[in-house]
Amino acid sequence: MRAQIPLGTVSGIRIGLHYSWLIIAFLISLSLGSNFAATNPEWGPGIIWATAIATALLFFVTIVLHELSHAMLAKSHGLPVRSITLFALGGVAEIEQEAGDARTEFWLGIVGPITSFVIGTICLAVLYGFGWKPPHFPRTPLLAMLMWIGYINIMLAVFNMVPGFPLDGGRVLRAIVWWITGDASRATRISAKLGQFVAFAFILFGVYRFFNGAGIGGLWIAFIGWFLLSAARESYAQVAITESLKGLRVRDVMSSDYPTVDSNANLQTLVDEHFLRMGRRCFFVSENGRIVGLITPHEVREVERQRWPFKTVDEAMRPLDQLRTVTPDTPIKKALEIMGSEDVNQLPVVEGNEVRGILSRGQILQLLQTRAELGK
Ligand SMILES: [Zn+2]
Protein backbone atom coordinates (compact mmCIF):
# COMPACT_ATOMS: atom_id res chain seq x y z
CA MET A 1 0.00 0.00 0.00
CA ARG A 2 1.54 3.27 -1.12
CA ALA A 3 0.60 6.56 0.53
CA GLN A 4 -0.38 9.17 -2.00
CA ILE A 5 -0.85 12.13 0.36
CA PRO A 6 2.08 12.62 2.78
CA LEU A 7 1.18 13.92 6.23
CA GLY A 8 4.57 14.13 7.91
CA THR A 9 7.20 12.13 9.74
CA VAL A 10 7.27 10.84 13.31
CA SER A 11 10.72 9.70 14.49
CA GLY A 12 11.77 8.72 10.98
CA ILE A 13 8.49 7.00 10.06
CA ARG A 14 6.62 8.54 7.14
CA ILE A 15 2.88 8.86 7.73
CA GLY A 16 0.56 9.23 4.77
CA LEU A 17 -2.89 8.72 3.32
CA HIS A 18 -4.04 6.45 0.52
CA TYR A 19 -6.78 8.00 -1.68
CA SER A 20 -9.27 5.36 -0.53
CA TRP A 21 -9.07 6.93 2.93
CA LEU A 22 -10.83 10.09 1.69
CA ILE A 23 -13.92 8.08 0.75
CA ILE A 24 -14.14 6.33 4.09
CA ALA A 25 -13.48 9.54 6.07
CA PHE A 26 -16.36 11.11 4.15
CA LEU A 27 -18.68 8.15 4.80
CA ILE A 28 -17.86 8.06 8.52
CA SER A 29 -18.46 11.82 8.88
CA LEU A 30 -21.75 11.39 7.02
CA SER A 31 -22.99 8.56 9.21
CA LEU A 32 -21.84 10.31 12.43
CA GLY A 33 -23.59 13.49 11.31
CA SER A 34 -26.93 11.78 10.73
CA ASN A 35 -26.46 9.98 14.05
CA PHE A 36 -25.92 13.22 15.97
CA ALA A 37 -28.82 14.83 14.09
CA ALA A 38 -31.08 12.05 15.44
CA THR A 39 -29.81 12.08 19.05
CA ASN A 40 -29.07 15.80 19.54
CA PRO A 41 -31.16 17.84 17.06
CA GLU A 42 -30.93 20.87 19.41
CA TRP A 43 -27.26 21.38 18.40
CA GLY A 44 -28.27 22.70 14.99
CA PRO A 45 -26.68 21.63 11.66
CA GLY A 46 -23.46 23.68 12.01
CA ILE A 47 -22.37 22.10 15.30
CA ILE A 48 -23.65 18.66 14.28
CA TRP A 49 -21.48 18.53 11.15
CA ALA A 50 -18.45 20.15 12.80
CA THR A 51 -18.64 17.54 15.59
CA ALA A 52 -19.05 14.71 13.06
CA ILE A 53 -15.99 15.77 11.05
CA ALA A 54 -13.87 16.41 14.17
CA THR A 55 -14.83 12.98 15.56
CA ALA A 56 -13.91 11.24 12.29
CA LEU A 57 -10.53 13.00 12.22
CA LEU A 58 -9.86 12.16 15.86
CA PHE A 59 -10.75 8.53 15.12
CA PHE A 60 -8.02 8.45 12.47
CA VAL A 61 -5.57 10.03 14.91
CA THR A 62 -6.22 7.11 17.26
CA ILE A 63 -5.64 4.66 14.38
CA VAL A 64 -2.28 6.33 13.74
CA LEU A 65 -1.48 5.91 17.46
CA HIS A 66 -2.36 2.20 17.16
CA GLU A 67 -0.03 1.79 14.17
CA LEU A 68 2.68 3.92 15.81
CA SER A 69 2.68 1.55 18.79
CA HIS A 70 3.46 -1.37 16.42
CA ALA A 71 6.08 0.74 14.65
CA MET A 72 7.83 2.02 17.78
CA LEU A 73 8.02 -1.45 19.29
CA ALA A 74 9.45 -2.79 16.03
CA LYS A 75 12.06 -0.03 15.97
CA SER A 76 13.05 -0.66 19.58
CA HIS A 77 13.78 -4.27 18.55
CA GLY A 78 15.94 -3.12 15.66
CA LEU A 79 13.36 -3.87 12.95
CA PRO A 80 13.31 -1.00 10.43
CA VAL A 81 9.92 0.63 9.83
CA ARG A 82 9.32 2.37 6.55
CA SER A 83 5.95 4.05 6.81
CA ILE A 84 2.44 4.13 8.17
CA THR A 85 -0.38 4.41 5.65
CA LEU A 86 -4.04 5.04 6.36
CA PHE A 87 -6.44 3.51 3.84
CA ALA A 88 -10.12 2.60 3.57
CA LEU A 89 -9.92 -0.33 6.01
CA GLY A 90 -7.73 1.26 8.67
CA GLY A 91 -3.99 1.63 8.96
CA VAL A 92 -0.95 -0.41 8.10
CA ALA A 93 2.59 -0.07 9.47
CA GLU A 94 5.15 -1.27 6.96
CA ILE A 95 7.74 -3.15 9.01
CA GLU A 96 10.53 -4.18 6.68
CA GLN A 97 11.83 -7.18 8.54
CA GLU A 98 10.28 -10.15 10.30
CA ALA A 99 10.59 -10.52 14.06
CA GLY A 100 13.55 -12.72 14.94
CA ASP A 101 11.88 -14.62 17.79
CA ALA A 102 8.46 -15.59 19.11
CA ARG A 103 8.57 -13.25 22.09
CA THR A 104 9.15 -10.15 19.89
CA GLU A 105 6.40 -11.29 17.51
CA PHE A 106 4.00 -11.64 20.45
CA TRP A 107 4.56 -8.08 21.68
CA LEU A 108 4.62 -6.72 18.14
CA GLY A 109 1.12 -8.11 17.64
CA ILE A 110 -0.48 -7.38 20.98
CA VAL A 111 0.82 -3.83 21.50
CA GLY A 112 -1.70 -2.42 18.95
CA PRO A 113 -4.88 -3.79 20.57
CA ILE A 114 -3.50 -2.80 24.01
CA THR A 115 -2.99 0.78 22.75
CA SER A 116 -6.53 0.97 21.31
CA PHE A 117 -7.97 -0.52 24.48
CA VAL A 118 -6.12 1.98 26.70
CA ILE A 119 -7.24 4.94 24.52
CA GLY A 120 -10.85 3.70 24.66
CA THR A 121 -10.79 3.15 28.42
CA ILE A 122 -9.29 6.60 29.10
CA CYS A 123 -11.99 8.28 26.94
CA LEU A 124 -14.82 6.46 28.72
CA ALA A 125 -13.27 7.04 32.16
CA VAL A 126 -13.01 10.80 31.54
CA LEU A 127 -16.60 10.77 30.28
CA TYR A 128 -17.68 8.95 33.43
CA GLY A 129 -15.83 11.57 35.48
CA PHE A 130 -18.05 14.19 33.84
CA GLY A 131 -21.08 12.38 35.21
CA TRP A 132 -22.04 10.37 32.12
CA LYS A 133 -23.97 7.14 32.70
CA PRO A 134 -24.54 4.62 29.89
CA PRO A 135 -26.79 4.19 27.97
CA HIS A 136 -27.62 7.92 27.95
CA PHE A 137 -26.31 9.99 25.12
CA PRO A 138 -24.08 12.92 26.23
CA ARG A 139 -25.62 16.35 25.78
CA THR A 140 -22.54 18.31 24.70
CA PRO A 141 -20.56 17.82 21.46
CA LEU A 142 -17.24 17.31 23.27
CA LEU A 143 -18.60 14.52 25.46
CA ALA A 144 -20.39 12.90 22.50
CA MET A 145 -17.07 12.86 20.67
CA LEU A 146 -15.35 11.29 23.69
CA MET A 147 -18.01 8.57 23.91
CA TRP A 148 -17.79 7.67 20.27
CA ILE A 149 -13.96 7.57 20.25
CA GLY A 150 -14.06 5.50 23.45
CA TYR A 151 -16.47 2.87 22.09
CA ILE A 152 -14.88 2.59 18.67
CA ASN A 153 -11.37 2.11 20.11
CA ILE A 154 -12.52 -0.69 22.39
CA MET A 155 -14.28 -2.31 19.43
CA LEU A 156 -11.10 -1.89 17.41
CA ALA A 157 -9.07 -3.64 20.13
CA VAL A 158 -11.54 -6.57 20.20
CA PHE A 159 -11.78 -6.84 16.39
CA ASN A 160 -8.00 -6.82 16.02
CA MET A 161 -7.63 -9.66 18.52
CA VAL A 162 -9.58 -12.08 16.26
CA PRO A 163 -6.98 -14.82 15.84
CA GLY A 164 -6.52 -14.85 12.07
CA PHE A 165 -3.43 -13.60 10.27
CA PRO A 166 -2.89 -10.78 9.22
CA LEU A 167 -4.96 -9.31 12.08
CA ASP A 168 -3.01 -8.52 15.25
CA GLY A 169 -4.66 -11.49 16.96
CA GLY A 170 -3.29 -13.69 14.18
CA ARG A 171 0.19 -12.40 14.93
CA VAL A 172 -0.28 -13.20 18.61
CA LEU A 173 -1.50 -16.71 17.72
CA ARG A 174 1.45 -17.13 15.37
CA ALA A 175 3.83 -16.11 18.16
CA ILE A 176 2.28 -18.64 20.55
CA VAL A 177 2.43 -21.52 18.01
CA TRP A 178 5.98 -20.46 17.15
CA TRP A 179 6.93 -20.50 20.83
CA ILE A 180 5.38 -23.95 21.41
CA THR A 181 6.63 -25.68 18.24
CA GLY A 182 9.81 -23.67 17.66
CA ASP A 183 8.85 -23.57 13.96
CA ALA A 184 8.17 -20.07 12.56
CA SER A 185 6.99 -21.23 9.11
CA ARG A 186 4.55 -23.73 10.56
CA ALA A 187 3.21 -21.03 12.88
CA THR A 188 2.59 -18.70 9.91
CA ARG A 189 0.89 -21.51 7.96
CA ILE A 190 -1.46 -22.29 10.83
CA SER A 191 -2.40 -18.68 11.61
CA ALA A 192 -2.79 -17.83 7.91
CA LYS A 193 -5.09 -20.86 7.43
CA LEU A 194 -7.12 -19.71 10.41
CA GLY A 195 -7.08 -16.21 8.92
CA GLN A 196 -8.71 -17.57 5.74
CA PHE A 197 -11.35 -19.29 7.85
CA VAL A 198 -12.06 -16.08 9.77
CA ALA A 199 -12.24 -14.17 6.48
CA PHE A 200 -14.80 -16.63 5.05
CA ALA A 201 -16.84 -16.29 8.24
CA PHE A 202 -16.82 -12.49 7.79
CA ILE A 203 -17.96 -12.78 4.18
CA LEU A 204 -20.78 -15.22 5.01
CA PHE A 205 -21.91 -13.16 8.01
CA GLY A 206 -21.81 -9.95 5.95
CA VAL A 207 -23.86 -11.43 3.11
CA TYR A 208 -26.33 -12.89 5.63
CA ARG A 209 -26.71 -9.48 7.32
CA PHE A 210 -27.13 -7.82 3.94
CA PHE A 211 -30.08 -10.06 3.02
CA ASN A 212 -31.58 -9.59 6.48
CA GLY A 213 -31.90 -5.85 6.27
CA ALA A 214 -28.50 -4.56 7.41
CA GLY A 215 -27.93 -3.02 3.96
CA ILE A 216 -24.54 -1.41 3.32
CA GLY A 217 -23.33 -2.37 6.81
CA GLY A 218 -23.57 -6.04 5.78
CA LEU A 219 -21.74 -5.50 2.52
CA TRP A 220 -19.06 -3.64 4.44
CA ILE A 221 -18.40 -6.65 6.70
CA ALA A 222 -18.24 -8.89 3.61
CA PHE A 223 -15.78 -6.48 2.02
CA ILE A 224 -13.50 -6.54 5.07
CA GLY A 225 -13.68 -10.34 4.91
CA TRP A 226 -12.67 -10.32 1.28
CA PHE A 227 -9.69 -8.07 2.06
CA LEU A 228 -8.61 -10.33 4.95
CA LEU A 229 -8.92 -13.37 2.71
CA SER A 230 -6.51 -12.04 0.10
CA ALA A 231 -4.07 -10.87 2.79
CA ALA A 232 -4.16 -14.27 4.53
CA ARG A 233 -3.62 -16.09 1.21
CA GLU A 234 -0.69 -13.83 0.46
CA SER A 235 1.04 -14.55 3.76
CA TYR A 236 0.43 -18.27 3.19
CA ALA A 237 2.06 -18.06 -0.24
CA GLN A 238 4.89 -16.05 1.30
CA VAL A 239 5.76 -18.97 3.60
CA ALA A 240 5.87 -21.36 0.66
CA ILE A 241 8.27 -19.04 -1.15
CA THR A 242 10.46 -18.55 1.90
CA GLU A 243 10.66 -22.32 2.45
CA SER A 244 11.53 -22.93 -1.17
CA LEU A 245 14.33 -20.35 -1.02
CA LYS A 246 15.75 -21.57 2.27
CA GLY A 247 19.50 -22.08 2.14
CA LEU A 248 19.88 -20.46 -1.28
CA ARG A 249 22.35 -17.63 -1.70
CA VAL A 250 22.81 -14.95 -4.32
CA ARG A 251 25.68 -16.88 -6.00
CA ASP A 252 23.31 -19.80 -6.75
CA VAL A 253 20.91 -17.63 -8.74
CA MET A 254 22.81 -14.59 -10.05
CA SER A 255 23.97 -14.36 -13.63
CA SER A 256 27.61 -13.50 -14.17
CA ASP A 257 27.36 -12.77 -17.90
CA TYR A 258 25.92 -9.33 -17.48
CA PRO A 259 25.60 -6.99 -20.47
CA THR A 260 27.54 -3.73 -20.44
CA VAL A 261 27.38 -0.44 -22.27
CA ASP A 262 30.14 2.14 -22.64
CA SER A 263 29.81 5.20 -20.42
CA ASN A 264 30.42 7.54 -23.40
CA ALA A 265 27.61 6.11 -25.55
CA ASN A 266 24.62 8.40 -25.91
CA LEU A 267 21.15 7.46 -24.73
CA GLN A 268 19.75 7.16 -28.28
CA THR A 269 22.36 4.50 -29.10
CA LEU A 270 21.65 2.77 -25.81
CA VAL A 271 17.94 2.58 -26.61
CA ASP A 272 18.28 1.61 -30.28
CA GLU A 273 21.12 -0.87 -30.06
CA HIS A 274 20.85 -2.25 -26.56
CA PHE A 275 17.42 -1.99 -24.98
CA LEU A 276 15.37 -2.55 -28.14
CA ARG A 277 17.64 -5.11 -29.72
CA MET A 278 18.79 -7.28 -26.85
CA GLY A 279 15.56 -7.38 -24.88
CA ARG A 280 17.32 -6.83 -21.57
CA ARG A 281 16.21 -4.18 -19.14
CA CYS A 282 19.36 -3.59 -17.18
CA PHE A 283 22.91 -2.73 -18.32
CA PHE A 284 26.07 -2.14 -16.36
CA VAL A 285 27.95 0.97 -17.44
CA SER A 286 31.67 0.43 -18.02
CA GLU A 287 34.35 3.08 -18.06
CA ASN A 288 37.85 1.96 -19.10
CA GLY A 289 36.92 -1.62 -18.29
CA ARG A 290 35.59 -0.77 -14.82
CA ILE A 291 31.93 -0.95 -13.87
CA VAL A 292 30.81 2.47 -12.65
CA GLY A 293 27.01 2.31 -12.64
CA LEU A 294 23.76 0.80 -13.77
CA ILE A 295 21.19 1.96 -16.30
CA THR A 296 17.62 0.78 -16.97
CA PRO A 297 14.76 2.21 -19.07
CA HIS A 298 13.62 3.91 -15.87
CA GLU A 299 16.63 6.27 -15.84
CA VAL A 300 16.34 6.91 -19.59
CA ARG A 301 12.70 7.92 -19.24
CA GLU A 302 13.75 10.66 -16.79
CA VAL A 303 15.45 12.42 -19.75
CA GLU A 304 13.34 14.09 -22.43
CA ARG A 305 13.21 12.06 -25.65
CA GLN A 306 14.60 14.91 -27.84
CA ARG A 307 17.73 15.08 -25.69
CA TRP A 308 18.61 11.37 -25.93
CA PRO A 309 21.18 11.85 -28.75
CA PHE A 310 22.99 14.53 -26.72
CA LYS A 311 23.16 12.95 -23.32
CA THR A 312 25.70 10.24 -22.45
CA VAL A 313 24.99 7.12 -20.49
CA ASP A 314 27.12 8.18 -17.51
CA GLU A 315 25.11 11.38 -17.14
CA ALA A 316 21.87 9.44 -16.74
CA MET A 317 23.00 6.26 -14.98
CA ARG A 318 22.76 5.47 -11.29
CA PRO A 319 26.36 5.41 -10.00
CA LEU A 320 27.43 2.16 -8.35
CA ASP A 321 28.18 3.82 -5.00
CA GLN A 322 24.61 5.08 -4.79
CA LEU A 323 23.09 1.64 -5.40
CA ARG A 324 22.10 -0.98 -2.88
CA THR A 325 24.24 -4.01 -3.67
CA VAL A 326 24.45 -7.58 -2.42
CA THR A 327 27.37 -9.98 -2.11
CA PRO A 328 27.42 -13.54 -3.52
CA ASP A 329 26.94 -14.76 0.06
CA THR A 330 23.74 -12.78 0.76
CA PRO A 331 20.77 -15.13 1.33
CA ILE A 332 18.17 -14.89 -1.46
CA LYS A 333 15.46 -14.11 1.05
CA LYS A 334 17.43 -11.08 2.26
CA ALA A 335 18.02 -9.97 -1.35
CA LEU A 336 14.27 -10.13 -2.03
CA GLU A 337 13.63 -8.01 1.06
CA ILE A 338 16.10 -5.40 -0.20
CA MET A 339 14.44 -5.37 -3.66
CA GLY A 340 11.11 -4.87 -1.96
CA SER A 341 12.20 -2.04 0.30
CA GLU A 342 14.21 -0.27 -2.45
CA ASP A 343 11.47 -0.91 -5.01
CA VAL A 344 13.90 -2.24 -7.67
CA ASN A 345 13.84 -5.36 -9.85
CA GLN A 346 17.56 -6.08 -9.89
CA LEU A 347 20.58 -5.73 -7.65
CA PRO A 348 24.28 -5.62 -8.59
CA VAL A 349 26.31 -8.36 -6.96
CA VAL A 350 29.56 -6.88 -5.64
CA GLU A 351 32.43 -8.57 -3.86
CA GLY A 352 35.17 -6.32 -2.53
CA ASN A 353 35.25 -3.61 -5.18
CA GLU A 354 34.52 -5.97 -8.06
CA VAL A 355 31.19 -6.43 -9.76
CA ARG A 356 30.51 -10.19 -9.92
CA GLY A 357 27.15 -10.21 -11.65
CA ILE A 358 23.54 -9.24 -11.38
CA LEU A 359 20.57 -10.66 -9.55
CA SER A 360 17.10 -10.00 -10.92
CA ARG A 361 13.63 -10.68 -9.60
CA GLY A 362 12.91 -12.56 -12.84
CA GLN A 363 15.71 -15.06 -12.17
CA ILE A 364 14.37 -15.76 -8.69
CA LEU A 365 10.84 -16.22 -10.02
CA GLN A 366 12.08 -18.60 -12.69
CA LEU A 367 13.88 -20.65 -10.09
CA LEU A 368 10.74 -20.78 -7.93
CA GLN A 369 8.70 -21.90 -10.94
CA THR A 370 11.12 -24.68 -11.82
CA ARG A 371 11.20 -25.86 -8.23
CA ALA A 372 7.40 -25.82 -8.03
CA GLU A 373 7.15 -27.82 -11.27
CA LEU A 374 9.50 -30.46 -9.94
CA GLY A 375 7.68 -30.54 -6.63
CA LYS A 376 10.71 -29.25 -4.73
ZN1 LIG B 1 -2.60 -3.47 14.79
Topology readout:
Layout lengths: L4 E6 L2 E5 L1 H21 L5 H32 L4 E7 L2 E6 L6 H28 L11 H20 L7 H14 L2 H31 L1 H29 L5 H4 L6 E3 L4 H12 L4 E5 L2 E6 L1 H5 L11 H4 L1 E2 L12 H11 L3 E6 L2 E7 H13 L3
Parallel strand pairs: 2-3, 5-6
Antiparallel strand pairs: 1-2, 3-4, 6-7, 7-8, 9-10
Zinc ion binds next to helix 2.
Keywords summarizing the entry:
binds zinc ion; 4-stranded mixed sheet; 13 helices
**What value does the average pLDDT take?**
85
Bound molecules: zinc ion
Describe the main β-sheet briefly: 4 strands, mixed
Instruction: Give the SSE order as H and E letters.
Output: EEHHEEHHHHHHEHEEHHEHEEH
- What is the helix fraction of residues, given as a range? 55-70%
Structural class: alpha+beta
| Percent of sequence in beta strands | 5-15%
Instruction: Quote the distance from N terminus to C terminus.
Output: 32 Å
Strand order of the largest sheet: 1-2-3-4
The low-confidence parts are none
Q: How would you describe this structure to a colleague?
A:
With 376 residues, the protein is an alpha+beta fold. The chain has 13 helices and ten strands. The radius of gyration is 26 Å and the shape is elongated. The protein starts with a strand and ends with a helix. The chain binds zinc ion. Residues 66, 70, 112, 160, 168 line the site of zinc ion.
